[in-house]
Amino acid sequence: RTYKTWARLYPYHLAHFIARVMRITPFKYYCDLLFMTLKDEKSYDRIPNFTAADALRVTGVGRNEYISIMNACKAKKLMWRVNKGIARDLLPAVPLDIKMEGWWSVNVVNVGTWGLVLLGSM
């Protein structure tokens, strides 16, 4: 939680625990981080450079996309003030296809029944 509030990089050095036990993938982490930044109506420039670069690599949301999402949210002025969840609908639902590198390691994660339902719906 503190990593998100400080807009830090996804803790890849703890990814084995975070992805397996806490079920937080880099995509979910960066979507939540972008949502919190949009909800607080902060500028994209408030996100540190390395975090923004990694978020762009995983989600595909860069500075221009962030600004267009913020403008789309603010276009619905009354709804934006009442329900800030509109931003979550405008963020990407699935991660980008990332080229697999030869030096990456792959870990097995136990998937529960809810995960199988989500995988089946894709």
Short overview:
The chain has 8 helices and no strands.
Tell me what you see in this structure.
The relative contact order is 0.13. The radius of gyration is 16 Å and the shape is globular. The chain is built from 8 helices and no strands. The model has no long low-confidence stretch (mean pLDDT 81). It has helices at residues 2-5, 15-22, 26-39, 49-59, 63-75, 77-82, 86-90, 113-121. The chain is mostly helical and 122 residues long.
Ends apart, CA distance between termini:
28 Å
Q: What is the overall silhouette?
A: globular
Broad structural category: mainly alpha
Gyration radius from CA atoms, angstroms: 16 Å
Q: Which range does the strand content fall in? A: under 5%
Main beta-sheet strand count, sense and barrel state: none
Which consecutive residue ranges, at least 5 long each, have pLDDT under 50? none
**Strands, total number:** 0
Number of helices: 8
What share of the residues lie within helices? 55-70%
Rounded mean pLDDT is: 81
Element-level helix/strand string: HHHHHHHH
